[in-house]
Amino acid sequence: MTIAPLRREDVPRCVEIEHELFPGDDPWSATSFLSEMAMGNHYLGAYLADGTLIGYGGLAVTGRDPDFEASVHTLAVDLGYQHSGIGKRLLRALLERADEVHAPVFLEVRTDNVPAISLYVAHGFEKIGLRRRYYMPSGADAYTMARPAVVRENP
Questions:
Q1: Domains of the chain
Q2: Is 9 an annotated catalytic residue?
Q3: How far is residue 129's CA from residue 135's CA, in Å, rounded to a whole number?
Q4: Is 120 a catalytic residue?
């Protein structure tokens, strides 16, 4: 399995995974993915040796030096490949990008998604807020989580 930039031709597969994972909410559309990619946000795919997409993640970095901020927009792994470290590898690759610009990282996660919350906590995130009825149409709540910026080392 390799992590590489997400390809436009993989967007239909992303939409399939979205519908598998988030049937009670509003899964991302192809237009959403393409728009995020067109804006230059950092989107990665997890690919099997044969090129099959089995997961993806996206990070937006905003602001300018020295005040960058990053936000994980999405992180998903095909149901058949969950709990095998793919989400961890995708998250670490996204965080590497945020670390390059010393940006704090924010995200939202469903309050009932214990595996994802555990993954984020293991990577330095803390709960900083609660967004009631954040996910629609289910009305599920979300935690806002944050990870501090990597401290710049003085030369």
A1: 2-147 (3.40.630.30)
A2: no
A3: 15
A4: yes
